Amino acid sequence: MATEPIDAVYTWVDGSWPGYDDLLRQYAQDRHDLNPNRYRDNLSILKYSLRSLARYAPWVRRVFVVSCRPQCPPWLDTAKVRLVHHDEFMAAGDLPTFNSFAIVSNLHRIDGLSSRFLYIEDDKLFGSPAAPDDVFDADGRPRIYLKSRAAIRPAQRESTRLSPWNRALAQSNYLLDARYGAKRRAFVHHAPLAVALESWRAMIDQWPEVFAQTSASRFRATGNVAPEYLYPHYLLEEGRGARVARRETMRRVAYHPLNNLLPLQRAGFFRLRWQRPRFFCMNDNFDQQPHPRAVALAQHALDAWFAEPSPFEVH
Known about the structure:
Layout: E1 6-11, H1 20-27, H2 45-56, E2 63-67, E3 82-85, H3 100-105, E4 116-121, E5 124-126, E6 143-144, E7 146-150, H4 164-180, E8 186-188, E9 193-196, H5 197-206, H6 208-216, H7 227-238, E10 242-243, H8 246-252, E11 253-258, H9 262-275, E12 279-284, H10 292-305
Parallel strand pairs: 1-2, 1-4, 2-3, 6-10, 11-12
Antiparallel strand pairs: 4-9, 5-12, 7-8
Helix pairs in contact: 4-7, 9-10
């Protein structure tokens, strides 16, 4: 398995792209659909994630960046990165889509993708040298990084008091419980999602109606599944995945929420510098209005850690 290529697939969107906000509001139904945390690109984190990948995971064969047409980061060298728009691999009737679950559900349809790949959200980065063995074991099984805390229970899958994200986790647990028996299942940690195409397709074939409904939802909605949560637990139940021990998970993976609380930002960046995890996530929790000083702190940290441009940038 060590000789097989591994590609990386990023998903990215820029909510400030001309005309995007108008299109978003044309289809939006509620406040969750307009949550700026999901569409904001004020730090260009994708650029720094690609820098981190070039430095710490140079064994990745090919990089794909998925976006809605005609979006493309202005600094991206499309001769070095394959830019893929939604209409190249999703059904026309499901577009336009603002639903990450729908997009991720269709990643296996991207032409030319390796049989094993990493799905990386643009806010996930590499913090120290990583090897293929950190994401796939010797038998080619994806490694699964789980948190200790249990995710949302199936009974809450239609609760409007929950966010669409948590309803999707509950729906995913409902499907897993129905097939494999009821149990408490942990949240999946913020590492790149290692995908084996054969098992990904097998998961979709197991629940085709649910995946069709998810793909057709323009925004996250009740009844959707979160593929990035369902897939790791499906792998573990089927014996197709390898769970990473808790101690190793704590060492290798970290999560940092970007918010407007300056002391917490400073402490979080200090922790990341000290821990130097293999993988970490800088998730946008700024809400409606990012504080300029908090944004400046995050920008300074990214510039300090990943100052050298990557081969994926226009020079």
